[in-house]
Write a structure and sequence with these properties.
The complex is a heterotrimer of chains A (289), B (419) and C (308).
Chain A lengths: L10 H28 L3 H6 L12 H8 L11 H31 L5 H11 L8 H11 L5 H25 L3 H9 L4 H9 L4 H17 L2 H6 L7 H10 L7 H32 L5
Chain B lengths: L1 H21 L4 E6 L4 H16 L3 E6 L6 H12 L6 E3 L4 H7 L7 H7 L1 H4 L2 H7 E2 L2 E2 L1 E8 L2 E4 L1 H7 L7 H13 L3 E3 L5 H15 L2 H8 L4 H4 L2 H14 L11 H9 L3 E5 L4 H7 L9 E4 L7 E10 L5 H14 L2 H11 L15 H16 L2 E3 L9 H16 L5 H15 L1
Parallel strand pairs in B: 1-2, 1-3, 8-9, 11-12
Antiparallel strand pairs in B: 3-11, 4-5, 6-11, 7-9, 7-10
Helix pairs in contact in B: 2-17, 10-13, 10-19, 13-20, 19-20
Chain C lengths: L1 H5 L7 H39 L16 H7 L2 H32 L6 H9 L6 H12 L5 H7 L16 H26 L3 H9 L4 H12 L1 H17 L1 H7 L11 H11 L3 H32 L1
Helix pairs in contact in C: 2-14, 3-14, 4-8, 4-11, 5-8, 6-8, 6-12, 8-11, 13-14
The chains are: A mainly alpha (289), B alpha/beta (419), C mainly alpha (308).
């Protein structure tokens, strides 16, 4: 271990840092380009180069994207769609995470005949291409009277998100010693008591993983949003697509990029603020599977 | 018991009807993909006119040039029993929707407005299913246009080409002078747009119709078709290398800025020139695509009307159908969209020179039989055959060897399989 | 059946027996809603798609059976063959590159690096973006007339050429690049988390025995991260199949149909071309391929775990 006490002096350390920093640049460049472009004027974008700083900083792209840009016939920016996305994402994330927690608990600690098979079926469900389910799902939602409503969209996201949340929780709970559960059962604790009193208090890390994962997936979804939301409750990804395709003559890349940033902001914030809980949760959970 | 039930339902119906009769204002949800500049303004004009009549316009825009995403959305909406009031559906697809029983008859509106006299039969045929109107035509686009930047032509000292051979000569000179001769976007429907213009130039309009409307295998699998592919490859060789995936209006922008000299595109491109503040005849020129003077490839936008249940919404829907064919809307809309009115009785004096020329060719070609439906825009054939042709054409453009014999063979196989 | 076995015991009082029975059924009751949802939403719809693939459905579903016609048509379709080949190239390269980059970065980042938290966040953030955004940005960066190529020309390197995006032979690799950019940081995070869980005394013992650090990683640490590989492959395969959005935003399948993927093919035929039977057949083949690749892997991994 002595070699680690004075890092930074050996050539291999320099190589490691060099590679890590190079990788940082590769990962950052697209974000940098988006940000810089969103603050440029259209003129600047055409004449200047990709990575140059704006000659004149302007927030016009941002204000326009937020409240003026056209997404079809309406020209009210994407602010309204921003809240639509929240209205859909929050319940969908909550429900799918809770369902996943219970499912994971059952599949890890209350195994029954066929429970492994069920788990396998659930896992395979992660790989169904969503294009396949659009039409039958639309027919089902129509029968339920949920076609083109926000609850309908939430239901769709729950169905296709629950496989992953179950996977997360199951792998996390499998690692918790069975003895703990057995002892509690001997003390007379029931199914729910054990879950709420013993497992739930130690589940914060995996809840973070599930919440972050689901939030990102659902917020960023385009296909379900465009198909299963009605005109005025469309999520922001659909509005972004409309905005990027709504152009006259000169493409306003600054507005496009600002809109893309606005659409990505909530998930970016979640990753930057809660990223360390994400890693912590993964460390504690799915990895030890 | 049954009597009681009947009274009950009668009561319920009348209870529903009362508010409906009181307020005639309904809601129309309109699915469209007009999100680019001139198109969006044209759609906004319709929205305004509907709101003037007291109805609510629920905009349902799904962007994406050819309307692929919009069609997906429409299908899922229809399957879930919740279709919009009106949707932008074109050509032979209208019949498919009607066959499935989704569309409502507009015959009462058509009769009271006299659509039969207003709209040329070639177009009203497309709007009908089993003799009933199920869709409203909005406009007529001419697809075989050549858009030209006159400054570039003047600098190089060439004239607007009238035939394909002239086009090749002119393009060579432009290329030598450092300009991109032909602005183009490498998307399947744009490739097909140029392809059909070349096809019409090489073939006469009868042969074109035999090949792409009637799918006559003797014409499709022939030396003429090989000739079409050969000329098409030559035309495409004047496009810059970075065209892949480019939007059509970005390509038009290249003509506007003088980076490129010409573009073969339908008259919606005019909206882009207008938005840039340019005047036709001075700042830009419109001419028939090389070798297709006097011929007219038509592309008609239309709204199909879906079967609705709410009384007031049906009223709004009928108003929408009526409004679309009114002269006032036809003028405003088509000026924004770059197309010409679908009514042949319109006063064209408020339109620009290109639109006037288009209207003249429209009328004359209808008489001479040189009015042909556009293949690239779904007026000539079913979406499946169209898709197969797109695959062959776009694959040909992007292949390394560009072998016309092989392409003709593939086209024949594809159409045969899809027929 | 289990209940009848219990009854003769008879010592337990009636209410608590009821409670006991409830307790035993409770887990199944709790998990039941999910399986109803999955049963319909995934397996029911799969079955329905399977049925449609044997019909001549064109515009909307019809039940006019034509046997294996659609599959025969599919096999003769050049575009489908391109799409299948692309999926193999894309899926294989994407998963391999993400695993490789993820492992290397994770190992390097595990060497007591300063500012580790910040670097980790930088690697991870692309995962937060939607594929539409990623596709739009990369399309821009890789576009020869707007992006890197123009930048290099502006900087005076005029012979620089990078036109993969518009070259039909190479465009599929640009999709791989964008997808790897997006997901490799996440794989890094998974492996970093795994490395943190490795008992450091093992490493110390191996070092005492004179093993070199790379050898220790190769022979001891990486094999112990098998479950992490499993999680990573699961997530990556999931992303690879869902990269429809990325292709649509970056190339829409072009130039020509050179970057077509089975999901794009299926979508185009089912929804825009009115060939629902053909689209369904392609969906079934796609599912079959996934089944053939994923299920043995799932089985061996889940099986292997039980022996531990």
């Amino acid at each position: 271990m002595t070699d680690m006490t004075r890092p930074g002096l050996r050539p291999s350390r320099i190589a490691i840092y060099g590679l890590l920093i190079l990788a940082c640049l590769v990962y950052l460049v697209p974000l940098f380009i988006m940000l810089v472009t969103s603050f440029k004027t259209p003129m600047d974008i055409r004449t200047g180069n990709l990575v140059a700083l704006p000659t004149e900083w302007t927030t016009i792209g941002w204000t326009k994207a937020w409240s003026e840009a056209c997404t079809g016939v309406q020209c009210e920016g994407i602010s309204g769609y921003f809240w639509n996305s929240f209205k859909m994402t929050v319940p969908a994330v909550m429900i799918s995470t809770l369902l996943g927690a219970f499912n994971g608990y059952v599949l890890a600690k209350w195994k029954f005949r066929g429970s492994d098979l069920l788990f396998g079926l659930l896992l395979f469900g992660c790989f169904v291409p969503f294009q396949v389910v659009l039409l039958p799902m639309a027919a089902t939602l129509g029968q339920l009277g949920l076609a083109n409503t926000t609850p309908g969209l939430v239901l769709v996201h729950v169905i296709y998100g629950v496989a992953f949340t179950t996977l997360f929780f199951r792998n996390y709970y499998v690692a918790i010693p069975d003895a703990l559960i057995k002892a509690a059962r001997l003390d007379g604790a029931g199914f729910f008591t054990i879950f709420f009193r013993i497992l739930l208090p130690m589940s914060t890390p995996i809840f973070m993983v599930s919440l972050i994962w689901q939030f990102t997936q659902i917020w960023n979804d385009f296909l379900f949003g465009v198909v299963f939301a009605s005109g005025d409750s469309q999520p922001i990804t659909v509005a972004l697509n409309n905005l990027v395709n709504t152009s006259t003559g000169v493409k306003e890349y600054n507005v496009d990029m600002a809109a893309a940033m606005i659409a990505a902001l909530p998930t970016l914030v979640v990753y930057i603020v809660a990223g360390k809980y994400f890693i912590r949760g993964l460390t504690a959970g799915s990895v030890k599977g | 018991m049954t009597a009681f039930k009947r009274t009950l339902s009668a009561l319920a119906v009348s209870a529903c009807l009362v508010p409906a009769a009181a307020t005639q204002a309904g809601e129309v949800e309109v699915l469209h993909w007009w999100t680019a500049g001139g198109e969006a303004r044209a759609a906004a004009a319709l929205k305004e006119m509907m709101e003037e009549q007291g109805h609510t316009w629920k905009d349902f825009a799904v962007a994406g040039g050819g309307g692929e995403a919009a069609m997906t959305v429409l299908k899922t909406r229809a399957v879930s029993g919740n279709p919009p009031a009106a949707a932008q559906i074109k050509g032979l697809d209208i019949r498919e929707w009607a066959k499935l029983g989704f569309l409502t008859s507009l015959d009462d509106v058509a009769a009271s407005e006299g659509w039969g006299q207003l709209v040329p039969p070639m177009i009203s045929d497309v709007m009908q299913y089993e003799g009933e109107y199920v869709a409203v035509p909005v406009n007529v686009h001419r697809v075989n246009w050549l858009w030209v930047n006159p400054d570039v032509m003047e600098k190089v000292g060439v004239d607007v080409p009238n035939t394909l051979d002239e086009f090749f000569t002119v393009a060579d000179k432009l290329k030598a002078a450092g300009y991109i001769p032909l602005a183009h976007g490498g998307q399947p429907w744009q490739d097909a747009t140029v392809f059909e213009a070349v096809a019409l130039a090489v073939m006469d309009s009868d042969t074109y119709r035999k090949a792409f409307v009637e799918h006559d295998m003797d014409v499709i699998n022939s030396a003429v078709m090989e000739e079409v592919f050969t000329k098409f490859a030559k035309v495409m060789s004047y496009v810059d290398d970075n065209a892949a995936g480019r939007d059509w209006n970005t390509a038009t922008g290249m003509v506007i800025r003088g980076e490129a000299a010409m573009q073969i595109m339908g008259d919606w491109a005019k909206g882009e020139f207008t938005a840039a503040g340019l005047t036709p005849g001075e700042d830009y020129l419109c001419a028939a695509a090389p070798g297709t003077a006097g011929e007219f490839t038509f592309n008609v936008d239309s709204f199909a009307m879906f079967d609705l249940s709410e009384e007031e919404d049906v009223a709004a829907q009928k108003d929408l159908a009526r409004t679309i064919l009114e002269p006032k809307f036809q003028t405003v809309f088509n000026q924004n969209k770059g197309s010409i009115p679908v009514r042949t009785d319109m006063d064209m004096s408020e339109f620009d020179a290109c639109a006037q020329a288009s209207m003249e060719t429209f009328k004359s070609s209808a008489d001479t039989g040189e009015l042909v439906p556009s293949l690239a825009h779904g007026l000539a054939t079913t979406s499946y055959v169209q898709g197969q042709v797109f695959d062959v054409v776009t694959n040909f453009v992007n292949s390394n060897d560009k072998d016309p014999v092989k392409a003709t063979d593939q086209l024949a196989t594809a159409i045969q399989a899809a027929k | 059946m289990e209940q009848t076995q219990r009854r003769p015991a008879g010592v337990v009082s009636a209410p608590s027996r009821l409670l006991d029975g409830l307790q035993r059924w409770l887990p199944k009751l709790v998990i039941a809603p999910t399986f109803v949802l999955i049963g319909i939403g995934i397996y029911g719809y799969m079955l329905w798609t399977g049925i449609l693939s044997f019909t001549s459905s064109s515009f909307l579903p019809t039940y006019d059976f034509v046997g294996f016609d659609q599959y025969a048509k599919l096999m003769a379709n050049d575009r489908w063959l391109t799409a299948s080949k692309n999926l193999a190239i894309f899926g294989g390269l994407f998963i391999f590159a993400c695993l490789f980059i993820g492992v290397v970065l994770a190992i390097f980042l595990d060497q007591r690096i300063r500012q580790e938290g910040a670097i980790r966040t930088i690697y991870l953030y692309p995962m937060a973006l939607s594929m539409i955004v990623t596709g739009t940005v990369w399309k821009w960066i890789l576009n020869p007339s707007l992006g890197i190529e123009k930048l290099m020309h502006d900087w005076g390197w005029t012979s620089f050429s990078f036109d993969w995006l518009v070259n039909s032979d190479l465009a599929i690799y640009t999709i791989v690049m964008a997808a790897v950019w997006q997901a490799s940081g996440f794989v890094m995070a998974l492996f970093l988390a795994g490395l943190r869980g490795v008992d450091s005394s093992i490493i110390r013992a191996a070092r005492v025995d004179g093993a070199s650090l790379p050898l220790i990683y190769w022979k001891i640490i990486l094999p112990s991260l098998r479950p992490v590989f499993f999680s990573a492959v699961m997530v990556l395969a999931h992303i690879a199949i869902k990269s429809f959005d990325l292709v649509m935003a970056m190339t829409a399948g072009g130039p020509g149909y050179s970057t077509d993927l089975p999901a794009v093919f299926m979508y185009a035929h089912t929804f825009t071309r009115g060939q629902m039977g053909l689209g369904s057949a392609s969906a079934m083949l796609m599912l079959g391929a996934i089944l053939a690749l994923i299920v043995p892997y799932l089985y061996s991994e889940l099986r292997g775990k039980r022996h531990d």
